[in-house]
Amino acid sequence: MSGGRILAAGLALALLAPAASAQTVGEEWRSLTFSVFALIIALTMYVTWRAASKVRTSADFYAAGSGVSGLQNGWAIAGDYLSAASFLGIAGLISLYGYDGFMYSVGWLVAYVTVLLVIAEPCRNIGKYTMGDILAFRNNPRVVRAAMALSTITVATFYLTAQMVGGGVLVKTLIGLDYEVSVIAVGVLMLSYVLFGGMVATTYVQIIKAILLVLASLVMVCLVWSQYGFAGPHYFEQVVGNPGVQARVASLLGEAGSTLGPLELGQRFLEPGLYLKSPIDQISLGMALVLGTAGMPHILMRFFTVPTAQAARTSVIWAMAIIGGFYVLTLFLGTGAAMMVGPERIMAADKGGNMAAPLLAQYLGGGPDALLGNLMLSFVAAVAFATIVAVVAGLVLAAASAMSHDIWVGVIKGDQATDAEETRAARICSLIVGAVAITIGILAQGQNVAHLVALAFAVAASANLPVILLTLYWRRCNTAGCIAGLVVGAASAVGLLLVSPNMSYPLQQRAVQEEIIATQTARMTSLEQDSTLTIEARVQALAAAGAATAQARAELDRLGTATTSLVGLAAPWFPLRNPGLVSIPLGFLAVFLGSLLYRDPRAEAKWQELHVRANTGIGRSAASAH
Amino acid sequence: MPESSPPWAALAAAPAFRQLQARKSRFLWSLLGFSVVFYFLLPTGAAWFGEWFVIKVVGPVNAGLLFALSQFLVAWGVAWWYARRASEFDRIAGELASTLEVDRQHPEQEQSS
Fold first, then answer.
1. N or C, which end of chain B has less CB nearby within 10 Å?
2. ipTM score here?
3. Are the Cβ atoms of B79 and A239 closer than 8 angstroms?
4. Which secondary structure element, helix H or strand E, spans residue A295, and what is its range?
5. What total number of domains does chain B contain?
6. Partner residue facing B9 (CB), from A271, A314, A608
7. Structural domains in chain A?
């Protein structure tokens, strides 16, 4: 196999970059950064090369021959789930908003309780490679495979777009690689894992990445503890007493915080309400997480890689231990970054706080001028890069499996394809999905894609989860119900998002910017007359106000003359940022109504078989040996 | 190997399966219900009962921080409890599968129920 060639391509990509301009990493440390990147990429390439010889059948390609152990799969699930958004995003939220960032992370773990209790084992017993397999068991196979595959591809595309754009921006911020180059690098690397090593390589890349991620976090947290003491009241006393934290809370609270003393401000960092201001929205997001994770195609697909339902159970329990442990560590990464780096510097590197963990790594190693500091920053950056590549690989594999296994073999060929044909189709589909992901990634440059992750979870929770759950647990569920649920669930989630506050509303944005200009202008006038300040303080404040005004004007120019959102609204029609609260009940309702209004003798005849199989595992073919 | 399809209807009606099914669903759905309710206490509590969250327990560590941490412990506890109970479900399912093997080896003894 052309393992050497993949390796060379990966290294070449990693070395392409020195032409671009440096950002977080200083110019003189670039060769060090690229060596660390090359080392980690080389490791994953070696694994892919080893895996490539093991992928002979379609079962190997889609499900690693069901030969993955529970512990391995647990790490791989954690690898799939701990995307850059949770690694960098949650640490950043905690460093900027304290308690609310930590509270936000809880829902991501609780989601696995649903997966563990009602999804993982029956899915393992009923399905083979895709979510379409589960529905096809008792419904009209062609119809439900086509619908489920479309829904899978939709969810994967939303998530992929967010990952590709996020990844491009991240790599650009971290090491100054051009946006397009980093998107293509992510895409080509991911494709080499998927094409040559299928699920075998993807699984090992996820495991390697998850271990590196946990290891890096553990080392960083231990270093934070070595300075502030182990996680106890004493640690949090220092968080509360930190001047940078206090200043951050004061700026967040504005007028409301002016009566609070320094320690009260610091204490406020450990209390809710600095970031999450709309409880209904939070409940809506919580529902999308708790039900959506169980409907994510790249997560569900992982349960087909283990030999038994018991191994599926073990893998979720390991995943919960790893993911939960990681989020607890994140609390200390976030608060550590807030104390050591300071919210101001974190915001300067990235407004959303994504640079909190990398900057903390740099600080812990001795700062931006030390070799160790830059080595640690490079390592964290390389792990973040590997994270994006691995998550994208899992998503591409899920979308490609739906295309080849459900649409090409199931719908077009009517299940009449040889194994060699199917394996080839799966590789071709991976190539197509990968090329589309790279194209979308480049086209979507500069777009705000953060809401696409929430949308992916909302569609998974409103369309995928209701049909999977009711197919497995409800006697009367049938083809009509599944189609109705998938269509209504996906359409309502996407439709509500299009009229939600996530879209940009130029009129409202313009009003916000004009208000900023008005307040800053008023401030400048009052500063000019204020004689209580020193000249220096006045000059500084004036410069800051001037800069804010200039920024607001630039923003106004960027908005141009548009007055309505993408769908022609002047103001959001639906008040919530996450559609789950409405679209999830609609999805379930559609499955109920569709199933009750239409009778499907096959779905009822197959119920007992499904019921026994799902609960006992009887009739499930044994795993192929590896 | 003669791969005749197992008698699914008979299996579904077998007392052992019905007992397994009843115990399993009662356990799983009540545990899931508890977990979901416990989780949603966090965002709803923070939003509408914030005054309880800010009560200091040890030094600056407040009730809200401990409650958020307890979410992790409860999720792990649920997983641990389920893993313990699941071995019992596995045992009943295993017995059911083995009676099926016996029936296949001695088809004359097969009884429809």
1. N
2. 0.88
3. no
4. none
5. 1
6. A608
7. 3-443 (1.20.1730.10)
